[in-house]
């Protein structure tokens, strides 16, 4: 348990350190520009292990999130300023600063903003609205969070949906669905400005400020940064929640949202209890570390090969009964390959982590066809 607390604390501090390094790199440039990019890449993608639960969050976790939220706005405008003529950075330094900003805002600040929204803090709104995606605050607060993991949840990726299809659908649906939800809410409890008017004002403020800081280059950089950050946010949701749903319990209610509804990286640091759950297949595990899964999601055919079978196993009914489940269609399991029903559901799920490499799937498919003919 102490190890897990240490990891969470270090992860929170390291996210702030990466942001401060980027802050200094915008002012100084030089070797700090590539150093900031490497730091943001490591903390944001490679070492992204901390998960936020508003019900059990520690005071330190909330403080770290608030600190990231406070750093968000000045760092955003400083990055835009540094990319313009006033920043006096050369082309290579500008590229490193922009790439570092893309990673920090896309993998660290965006996630912190979502966590702050779940915690009910206004800094989450500032983090989203300043990057031209304020409508996601309404979508998260009114639709995603209450419906998470259930059929009405639009943010839940389907088993047959590629990331590109998912991203286009969310970009199209989130704005209109959030607007409808906010309008319905205001009909019952109307007070103050309509949230979407606030988001629009934030959008104009951000664009005008970017143009004032760095001209057309700053305006273009802000728009590009917004698109890339939004894409990363959707990519994170896609790889973490692909095909996972909350099952309906015998009493007709959906089970509570927990670790079994989010994909976890292999060989993660867990508490002793979580280690037992990991070994018994009680929550889903990616076949590869997070960076490779993010890259794989951009390749639809490869992603389906790696993840469709694993996700299908986690859709078995809540009572654990495999009656009517087409286990023979799940080719990632050696038991399914042999045409045998697994003896234990948890063991079978854990077996999915030991799937053979992609290079051997063609051979396994031929063996399966031969077995079916026999």
Summary tags:
single chain, 374 residues, mainly alpha, 0% strand, globular
Low-confidence spans: 1-9, 269-274, 355-359
Spatial extent as radius of gyration: 22 Å
Note the quaternary state here.
single chain
Total strands: 0
**First-last Cα distance:** 52 Å
Q: Any idea what the shape is?
A: globular
Q: How helix-rich are the residues, as a percent range?
A: 55-70%
Strand content: under 5%
Mean pLDDT: 81
Question: Structural class of the secondary structure composition?
Answer: mainly alpha
- Continuous helix count: 14
Short summary:
The protein has 374 residues and is mostly helical. The protein has helices at residues 2-28, 32-46, 59-83, 91-118, 123-129, 135-147, 163-188, 195-241, 272-279, 290-297, 300-313, 334-337, 345-351, 361-373. The protein has 14 helices and no strands.
